[in-house]
Amino acid sequence: MVLDVELPGLSGLDLQRELAAHGIKLPIIFITGYGDIPMSVRTMKAGALEFLTKPFHDQDLLDAIQQALERDRAVRHHWTEMAELRERFDALTSREREVMSLVVAGLLNKQIGFDLGISEITVKIHRGRVMNKMGARSLAELVRTAERLKIPAKDQPAQTK
Q: How confident is residue 155, by pLDDT bands cut at 50, 70 and 90?
């Protein structure tokens, strides 16, 4: 969104504040002929991507727009990816979530079985389902996914003999 600071009625700064208050996150490029340093700092702290003072070169505006589009594309991709991961995690049963938490904490199958009071074979079955449902091809990938989703791993490994 390209906004002039001096819009009639609602100023560009006010519109930026209103969009933020409603949770609308758009990359904003401000242009103005009346800007000062405190105003540019305020807009940037509020999330503006660029603050151009008139007169500016057309290429500067085009470059800022290109950068805004690339950043917006990256942000949208990230949120789409996170929504897909969250959907996969939500598809896990409560037992599979328990197993996942223990797996990403580094526990062995027999330790997980001991902690949960189930057999090692049952742990292997749950672990396989977790890997499949989460789309993880390796333990490292499952750990990275858990970190991205901020899923806490169980702190204390089980004590087995």
A: low
7: tokens are: 């819009």
User: pTM above 0.85?
Assistant: no
- Tell me the one-letter amino acid at 55: P
Angle between helices 139-148 and 58-90 (to 10 degrees): 110
Residue carrying structure tokens 């100023």: 11
Pseudo-torsion of CA 65, 70, 74, 79, nearest 10°?
30
DSSP notation for 109-160: HHHHHHHHT--HHHHHHHHHHHHHHHT-SSHHHHHHHHHHTTPPPPSSPP--
